[in-house]
Amino acid sequence: MTGLSFRDLALIDVERIKGVGDKRRVALRDVGIETVLDLVTTYPRRWIDRTNEARVGDLVVGEEALVLVTVREVASRSLKNRRKMVTATVGDGTGRLQIVFFNQAWRERQLREGLNIVLFGRPENYRGGLQMTNPVVDLVGDRTGRIVPIYPQSEKAQLNTWELAGWIENALDRCRERGILDPVPEDIRSGLGLMARDEAFRSIHLPETMKDKEAARRRLAFDELLRVQLVLVMRKRAMERDAIGIRHRLVGGLVEQFHANLPYSLTGAQQRAIDEIAGDLAAPHAMHRLLQGDVGAGKTVVAVSALLVAVQGGHQGALMAPTEVLAEQHHSGIRRLLDGIEVGDPSNLFGNRPLRVELLTNRVTGAERREVLAGLADGSVDLAIGTHALIQEGVRFRHLGVVVVDEQHRFGVEQRAMLRAKGEADNPDGTVPDVLVMTATPIPRTAAMTVYGDLDVSVLDEKPAGRTEIVTHWANGPLDEMAVWVDIREEVTAGRQAYVVCPLIDESEKLEVASAEQTFERLRLQELVGLRIGLLHGRLGSAEKETVMEQFRRREIDVLVATTVIEVGVDVPNATVMAILDADRFGIAQLHQLRGRVGRGAHRSRCWLVTAPQEDGNPRVEALVASTDGFELAEADLELRGEGTIMNTSQKGRSDLKLASLRRDKELVALARQAAFEIVDADPTLRSQPALVDELSLLFTSEDEAFLFKG
Ligand code: ADP
Ligand code: MG
C-alpha cells in the first residue's frame, strides 16, 4: 500500500475530521481550509517551549521571559489622542503581574477572566509591582505537552489554536496507517539530510523537541521551494530546447563604434553584463536573461549594445517599455545615443546608410504609423522602440533578432512569452529572438532566483562615476513641510528644477488626478507662487503629456507636479529636488524608484518625504532616509512586508510559500534550485517521477501546468 499523496489528502473534506461540524466547516472555509491537505499544511505560527517556562515568582526585572498565567481582571481606559490603554492583572500560583497594552483595544475582548495565556515579554518595575508592556500573548487553552504549537487564529472566524491543533492531530492520526507519501527522490533526500515527509508532518505539528521541529520545518520548506524551482527550471529547459536560437555574429564593429562614441567609459559592471549578453547571443540557444540594476545604474547602454549586435548581423531589435512616456523617452534618448552611426546597406553603392530607429506606440497613427509598420516589415527599420503596441496584431518584423523588455515589473511572464512568440512567428527561418529583461526593482538575489527563476541574471552593481548622492529627509508634518517649499524655491533660484509627486490613491485614478490638480492649484497660488509650474498625470492626452515633458526638459517649467506617471525612466539631470507628498502611502520600492528621478546630474540632490505628523515613527520612510542602496532597501522591504508579496508576482494560491522564507532560507533556495536542475536534467519530462508531477499539477495553476506538460 502506497502512502497518501497530497492529491489523496486534497480529496478528503475537512468535515471528515472529528469535531468539525457544519459550523466549524464554514469557519474553516473562511480561512481557506477545505480539505485535509489544507489542514495539515496549516502550520504553527510559533512553538512555545514549555521547558523554558518561568513562574511569576521567579521573574526578574529587565529579563525577557515566558510565563503561563491565568487572567484575573481586565480594564481599559481612554488616553488623549483617542488612544486606548488596556490593562490586565494576571498570575499563577506564585505571584501576580500587570500587563499593559497601548493601541490594542481588541485585547479587552480577547482577554477574558479565567483564560489561560502564555506571555512573552520583559518585566519592568511599576509602582512597586511587576509589569509587562505590550507582551506577546498566546492563548494556549488547556493543551499540555512540552512544546505547544500556536496556530494562526482568526477572531472573525472564531477559530482558536487549540481547536486547530486538535483537528490536525486527528488528521495526522488517521494518516498514520498508510503514511504520507514522499515524492522527492531518495538520493536527493539523503544527499541533503532531509527528514522523511511523513515524519516531518508529525514533527512540525507535534514536535518532541525544538530540534525536531527545526528539521521538520527545513524539510517542508525545502519541498515548497523545490516545487517552485521545478516549474521554473522545467520552463527554462523547455524554452532552451524548443526554440531555435539565432547565433549572432559578434563582428561588424557596430557595438565598438557605439562605445567609442559614448562621452564616458563603461563601468566594469556594464562591461561585464555586455560580455555575458554577448556570450548568450553568440550561442545557438535563445537568450532569456534578466538585467538587474538599480535606478541610474546605466541599463540603457547595455540594452542598446545588445540591440546593436542584432543589427550588425542583419537582424532587427526591439525595445518594449511599459508606458508611452517611457517609450518616447527611450526613443529620443536612444536616437541621440546612436546619432551618426551607420549600418551596412547592400542596396547602396556606397555601402552604408544611417541606422534607423523608430517609435511605435498607440499614438503613432495614420501615415506615420503605416510608414513605421512598412519599415518593420521590410527590414529598413533597424530598431523599434515602443510599448505593448509592438506585439499587437498587424505588426510584423522582417527578422527580429533581439528583444529588450524594460521595467519588467510592469509586464508579466505572458507578455514576455508573447514577444518571443512574435519573433518566432514572423522570422522566416522560425528562429526565436533573444530576450533581455531589464528591471530596476532591486530584488535580493535569492528572491530573484525564485521570481525570475527561468532566466539567467546579470547584475549592474556599480553606479557610473560622478553620481551625486541623494540626501533624503523626512518632512514629518506641516512645520517640516514649510522647509520643503523653501528648499524648492532656493533650488529654482539657483537654476535647478524640482518634482512634486502627488499622493498615490490606489482605488481610483480619477481621485488621484483630482488630488494632483488640487495640489497644482494650491502650490501655484500659495507655496510656490511666482514659479513656473507644470502638471503631469495619467489622464492627460499623450500629446499634452509630451508637451509638458518637453517643456520641463527645456527648463520652461521650474516645478513639475506629477502623479506616479513619472515613476520610471524620466531623465532630467537638472532636476535636483523631489518632494513626495503623503509618502507613507507608497511602498519602499516605489519611493526608491521615484527618488531615482533626481541625482542624475552633477548637482547635489535632495528628496523630501512628506507625511502628516507621525509620532511613532514610520519604518518605510525611515528606511529610505537611512539608505540609498536599492538592494539594502529591498531586504528591508522584504523584512517589513513579509514574503507573500514577492511570490504573488509569479505564483498564486496553493503554491504559495507557507513555511519557506526567501529571506531566512537563502541556503535552502539555492539547494532546491540545484536539486531541481538535477532532477530535470536527468529526466526532462519527469516521466520517472509521477509522484512529483502529480503534486505539481495539483498545486500549480493551469497556466503553470501548460509549461509542465508541453514537452
Ligand atoms: P537606468 O536605466 O539603469 O536607470 P540609464 O541607462 O537611464 O539608467 O542611465 C542613467 C544615466 O547615466 C544616463 O544619463 C546615462 O547617460 C548615464 N550613464 C550611463 N552609463 C554611464 C557611465 N558608464 N558613465 C557615466 N554615465 C553613465
Ligand atoms: Mg532605465
Task: Please explain how this structure is put together.
Helix 8 (210-242) packs across helix 23 (666-682). With 711 residues, the chain is α/β, with parallel strands linked by helices. Among the domains are: 51-144, Nucleic acid-binding proteins (OB fold (Dihydrolipoamide Acetyltransferase, E2P)), CATH 2.40.50.140; 254-283 and 296-439, Rossmann fold, CATH 3.40.50; 470-627, Rossmann fold (3-Layer(aba) Sandwich), CATH 3.40.50.300. Helices cover 40% and strands 19% of the residues. Adenosine-5'-diphosphate is lined by residues 264, 266-267, 270, 293, 295-301, 440, 464, 571, 600.
Radius of gyration: 30 Å
Show unreliable segments.
643-655, 707-711
The CATH homologous superfamily of the domain at 254-283 and 296-439 corresponds to P-loop containing nucleotide triphosphate hydrolases
CATH architecture of the domain at 254-283 and 296-439: 3-Layer(aba) Sandwich
Strand content: 15-25%
Distance between the termini: 31 Å
CATH class of the domain at 254-283 and 296-439: Alpha Beta
User: What spatial form do the alpha-carbon principal axes imply?
Assistant: globular
Number of helices: 25
Number of DSSP-assigned strands: 24
- What percent of residues adopt helix (DSSP H or I)? 25-40%
Which class of secondary structure composition applies to the elements?
alpha/beta
Biggest sheet overview: 7 strands, mixed
Hetero compounds: adenosine-5'-diphosphate, magnesium ion
Pfam family, one: Helicase_C
Catalytic activity: ATP + H2O = ADP + phosphate + H(+); Couples ATP hydrolysis with the unwinding of duplex DNA by translocating in the 3'-5' direction
EC number: 5.6.2.4
InterPro entries: ATP-dep_DNA_helicase_RecG (IPR004609), DEAD/DEAH_box_helicase_dom (IPR011545), Helicase_ATP-bd (IPR014001), Helicase_C-like (IPR001650), NA-bd_OB-fold (IPR012340), P-loop_NTPase (IPR027417), RecG/Mfd (IPR047112), RecG_dom3_C (IPR045562)
